[in-house]
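Write out the bound-state structure for manganese (II) ion.
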Amino acid sequence: MEREILNLINNSSNVLIITHINPDGDTLGSSSALRSYIGDRADILIQIEDNFNFPLTYNFLPYLNEAVNLSTLKDDYDLVIALDCASIDRILDKPRKIFEACRNTIVIDHHKTNKGFGKINYIKGGISSTGEVLFDLFEKLNIKITSQMAIGLYSAILTDTGCFKYESATPHTFEIAQKLSELGINTSEIADLCYTNKPKNLILFQSEVINNAQFILNDKIAYTLITKDIIEKYSAKDEYTEGICETLRSVRNVEIAFVIKETDFGSKVSIRTKEIDATKISSEFNGGGHKRASGCTIKEPVNRAAEKILQVAKSLLN
Ligand SMILES: [Mn+2]
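---
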């Protein structure tokens, strides 16, 4: 399959690389690395919904400043490659139509729940990041990784492993990090660029949301609700909620942390756990995710959604 992927890349003159909607460091870093490899024949599409700012944090990644958006996207590509997209739902209407109409499509991903929606599906469920999957693909194909590609791959792996903290960071992940750092990239500077460039309002918003948290069952469960009022007060963008659930999970004795955010269609739930399988909660509500991080959507007001999640969470602690 690796050969087939390489042949397709080599034989296409117009390649579209698609990040997932509202992109994170993994999808952006992987896209940057793949664009660095393919060269000018490839466009990166960054898909952003209305209430999401492009995370300026990642502007340092090579070629992101040349990325196309939904309005500058061409109609026709020989090959479309979706990176870090767990399902076709992670692709918005216009690019989805291009994807579905394209003769050659490749999905490269690491989400266990990805059923494969491309003609070629290179999915390694459980691997730390799409960055790691892509690194292994390059190595299998004897593709020389340049220091420019290394910046994207390292950023992808760094951010998707929570700075190498998650269980998904295996000895192989560290081996890759070593190889990338040997290519002369400045790992300390990359970490600084990823983590010390936050908008002030993000911190103020997060402080208030965390201050509202409830701790129950001897602190085994921690949760907080994000209402539209708080969102308005800080003009909070969608990405401002990232990391809040992690913070609640970081509290001593907390086993299950969740954050429920009010949206136009009901409630968006993020779940983080320590020992318990987080997908056991999200799957009750048609959601998905990983063992320690999952999410789902519930078409109910936030209070009602919280009750539902609490019910399942409590049953798992017994
Ligand atoms: Mn990822």
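---
The pocket of manganese (II) ion is lined by residues 26, 84, 110, 129-130, 160 (CB under 6 Å).
The chain has twelve helices and eleven strands.
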